[in-house]
Design the sequence.
């Protein structure tokens, strides 16, 4: 015979389990079939880089197909420029555009960074060397900003000629259009005195005309300057320099822009 105390314990346990079961069914009915599921665990995001930190260097892109001798020269150019100027390529761009900048640290070290297309032909090579040129000539060495752009292009072209890379008409036209854009942008921002080097780029050049020559001034590249001097001595052709036509005052939109020769 079961004791009364054990019977009461069994009934209490049965009632408790039944109540829990009923509560669960009621809760499910209230939530309905479209009740929101339990929140999913958030995936861990990669930590953000702090401002001024240096991003990792971009890997060298693989060359599709058989590597040509010319591509080998481009590959060697990239290696040489990175070592000579201590550059880090943040990203190899698929477009023919680029940028160059520096990051300074409290210990006095400097990270020299660029983004540009990987050299595979004359255009991408010129753009790559243009970005390298910003570091080669030094930031804020030439003012205003449009003058720095001119000298970065000048450095790029002189390096291509020094190393016997093909400097095509389309590359020269790209330089002309880029510097005209830089001058127009500076004028919109209130530029009053135009440096002499930029006079040829004040007005847009028609595509019916050939682009301007690669060298508009005597080269500052010592190797290229010595080569040109030797060729002139051999040919006996000692003419005036391209900068003889600079230093004038021109009109732009009815506003006279003074010409200022940099030091």
Sequence:
């Amino acid at each position: 015979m079961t004791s009364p105390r054990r019977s009461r314990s069994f009934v209490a346990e049965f009632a408790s389990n039944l109540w829990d079961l009923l509560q669960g069914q009621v809760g499910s009915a209230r939530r309905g079939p479209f009740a929101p599921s339990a929140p999913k665990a958030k995936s861990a995001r990669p930590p953000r880089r702090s401002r001024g930190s240096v991003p990792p260097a971009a890997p060298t892109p693989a060359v599709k197909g058989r590597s040509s001798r010319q591509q080998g020269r481009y590959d060697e150019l990239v290696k040489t420029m990175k070592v000579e100027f201590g550059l880090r390529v943040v990203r190899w761009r698929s477009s023919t555009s680029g940028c160059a900048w520096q990051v300074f640290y409290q210990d006095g070290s400097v990270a020299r960074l660029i983004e540009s297309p990987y050299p595979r032909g004359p255009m991408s090579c010129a753009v790559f060397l243009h970005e390298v040129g910003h570091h080669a000539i030094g930031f804020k060495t030439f003012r205003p900003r449009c003058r720095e752009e001119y000298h970065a292009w000048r450095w790029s072209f002189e390096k291509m000629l020094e190393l016997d890379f093909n400097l095509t008409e389309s590359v020269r036209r790209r330089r002309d259009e880029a510097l005209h854009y830089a001058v127009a942008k500076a004028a919109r921002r209130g530029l009053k005195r135009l440096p002499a080097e930029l006079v040829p780029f004040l007005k847009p050049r028609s595509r019916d005309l050939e682009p301007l020559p690669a060298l508009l001034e005597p080269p500052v590249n010592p190797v290229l300057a010595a080569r040109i001097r030797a060729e002139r001595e051999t040919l006996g052709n000692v003419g005036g320099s391209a900068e003889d036509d600079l230093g004038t005052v021109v009109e732009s939109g009815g506003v006279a822009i003074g010409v200022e020769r940099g030091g």
Q: What stands out?
A: Residues 4-31 form the longest helix (28 residues). The chain has two domains: 55-120, 140-260. Residues 240-263 have pLDDT under 50 and may be disordered. The chain has six helices and six strands.
